[in-house]
């Protein structure tokens, strides 16, 4: 079971949820700023630690070696987390799954294989593990999923061109991908990028248009 922490919404009866997956070497602590920055009091947040220790933080899969076993193991654990949250009354269709770097890869891997429709999938500064393989293993609801993928043209760790190629494979398969590029390194591009994320997340809850 993955260690995770729920930060509740106001009002407490809200079932809208954002799950955030950190990058390599980070942890829950690295995203405690997110609820305040998002400024959505109606949104619950679940922050998650990856399963493997990594230099004071955590990792979703082996860095620099064979990444496939780690991705598959973490995918199973995240399926279990989503199933558990469903059992606790958080409907998947009101849940947005997001992540940064390794967390981005895991969000896409899980979101497009999970058998229930999400409110949205957000991938920031990451890659797709194997885009060609993924599009042959999509869940029956994958073509209903909404995706936002962002990346930096100056990223020194995960080259921009490779991620854009991954995204083009997903688009060519008919998946719904909203793609945004920023002049940034391997980070979140401040308020400019946060506003894109806010708009996408809010768009997953059509009932809010009436508020």
General description of the model:
The protein is α/β, with parallel strands linked by helices. The longest helix has 20 residues, at 68-87. The chain is globular and about 45 Å long. The strands form two sheets. Strands 1-3-2-6-7-8-9 form a seven-stranded mixed beta sheet, with helices on both faces. A two-stranded antiparallel ribbon has the order 4-5. It has a single domain, classed as Alpha/Beta hydrolase fold, catalytic domain (Rossmann fold), CATH 3.40.50. The model has no long low-confidence stretch (mean pLDDT 96). It has helices spanning 34-38, 68-87, 102-111, 131-134, 160-172, 190-203; strands at residues 4-7, 17-21, 44-48, 52-54, 57-59, 95-100, 120-124, 146-152, 176-182. Strand 7, helix 4 and strand 8 (146-152) form a beta-alpha-beta unit. It has six helices and nine strands. Helix content is 31%, strand content 21%.
SS-based class: alpha/beta
In the CATH scheme, what's the topology name? Answer: Rossmann fold
Based on Cα principal axes, name the global outline. Answer: globular
The ordered string of helix (H) and strand (E) elements is: EEHEEEHEHEHEHEH
Q: Tell me the span between the first and last alpha carbons.
A: 37 Å
């Amino acid at each position: 079971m993955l260690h995770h922490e729920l930060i509740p919404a106001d009002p407490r009866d809200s079932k809208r949820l954002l799950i955030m997956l950190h990058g390599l070497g980070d942890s829950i602590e690295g995203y405690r700023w997110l609820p305040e920055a998002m400024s959505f009091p109606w949104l619950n947040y679940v922050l998650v630690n990856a399963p493997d220790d990594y230099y004071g933080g955590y990792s979703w899969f082996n860095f620099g070696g064979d990444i496939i076993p780690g991705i598959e193991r973490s995918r199973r654990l995240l399926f279990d987390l989503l199933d558990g949250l469903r059992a606790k009354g958080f409907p998947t269709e009101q849940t947005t799954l997001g992540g940064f770097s390794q967390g981005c890869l895991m969000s896409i891997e899980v979101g497009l294989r999970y058998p229930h429709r999400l409110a949205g999938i957000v991938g920031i500064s990451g890659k797709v593990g194997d885009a060609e393989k993924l599009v042959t293993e999509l869940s029956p609801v994958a073509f209903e999923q909404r995706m936002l993928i962002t990346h930096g043209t100056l990223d020194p760790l995960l080259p921009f061109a490779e991620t854009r190629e991954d995204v083009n494979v997903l688009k060519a398969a008919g998946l719904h991908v909203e793609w945004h590029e920023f002049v940034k390194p391997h980070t979140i591009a401040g308020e400019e990028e946060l506003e894109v994320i806010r708009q996408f997340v809010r768009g997953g809850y059509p009932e809010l248009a009436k508020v």
